[in-house]
Write a structure and sequence with these properties.
Elements: E1 2-3, H1 4-10, H2 17-25, E2 38-39, H3 52-63, E3 68-69, E4 72-73, H4 75-78
Parallel strand pairs: 1-2
Antiparallel strand pairs: 3-4
């Protein structure tokens, strides 16, 4: 797990978290980039709860063994350092 802001920071673009989200949103369907492992800084999926995209991302994470507490993921436990 990593937040959008942390991806931006590591790319040398601090403050560009929304750009990371935009880039992931526009990935080609055949991309192998693990977009589902990027969440917001609060430890939540950014898609609106209950939507198809939310359920897709959540199921991909759960299939990888990520445990949720309600709608949140522990960045302390699962975060990429």
């Amino acid at each position: 797990m990593i937040s959008y802001g942390a991806v931006a920071d590591r790319a040398g673009l601090p403050g560009y978290a929304r750009y990371v989200g935009y880039t992931l949103k526009h990935l080609p369907p055949e991309s192998s980039l693990p977009w589902h492992r990027v969440i917001n800084s609060e430890g939540s999926i950014s898609f609106e709860s209950g939507t198809k995209k939310y359920h897709l991302q959540r199921s991909k994470l759960e299939n990888e063994g990520i445990m949720f507490s309600g709608e949140k993921i522990s960045l302390q436990k699962y975060g990429w350092i």
